[in-house]
Amino acid sequence: MTRFRIADEPFETAPLRERLLRDEAGACSMFEGWVRNHNEGRPVHGLRYESYVTLAESEGARIMAEAVERFSLGEAVCVHRIGELEIGDLAVWVGVSAGHRDKAFAACRWIIDEVKARVPIWKHERYADGDTGWLHPDEGAPARKGGDPAS
């Protein structure tokens, strides 16, 4: 099974977590990104994610391979939704296992930051006032740090 995939339907996280189990792992870190009801002070009613799936999965796979190498991970998995999502829906899930918690936390953060920066996924938000707007999922996010496992 691949480490990164785009999902056009809701997915279960329990099987993803099971993929992280390793005898040598002393830590697991997971991140869930949900659709929230606001963005930059505007009420949001929902959104649609679109992606160039072939390129997204290819770039996502590169990110996951880089993370495994960079942070000496036992395993790493990420799934990102596309399609129509409502408030509270799970939009993205990242999980990693590592020998120690510092690498697990750092790797999980690095993966989600890289996915948001490098994977071709776009968000089309529906606002309460009837307006809509396209944006890359990372727009408005704070600047990324270098991603060094020690930072």
Q: Spans of 5+ residues with little confidence (pLDDT < 50)?
A: 140-151
**SSE succession:** EHEEEHEEEHEE
Q: What is the strand content?
A: 35-45%
Globally, the shape reads: elongated
What is the helical fraction, as a range of percent? 25-40%
Mean pLDDT: 91
Oligomer: single chain
Major beta sheet summary: 5 strands, antiparallel
Structural class: alpha+beta
Radius of gyration: 16 Å
Note the total helix count.
3
The strand count comes to 9
Secondary-structure map:
Blueprint: E1 4-7, H1 14-20, E2 27-34, E3 38-39, E4 42-51, H2 53-71, E5 73-81, E6 83-86, E7 90-98, H3 101-118, E8 121-127, E9 132-135
Parallel strand pairs: 1-5
Antiparallel strand pairs: 2-7, 3-4, 4-6, 4-8, 5-7, 8-9
Q: Could you characterize the architecture of this molecule?
A:
The protein has helices at 14-20, 53-71, 101-118, and strands spanning 4-7, 27-34, 38-39, 42-51, 73-81, 83-86, 90-98, 121-127, 132-135. Helix 2 (53-71) packs antiparallel against helix 3. Strands 3, 4, 6, 8 and 9 form a five-stranded antiparallel beta sheet that branches. A four-stranded mixed beta sheet has the order 1-5-7-2, sandwiched between helices. Residues 140-151 have low confidence and may be disordered. The longest helix has 19 residues, at 53-71. It is α+β, with helices and mostly antiparallel strands and 151 residues long.
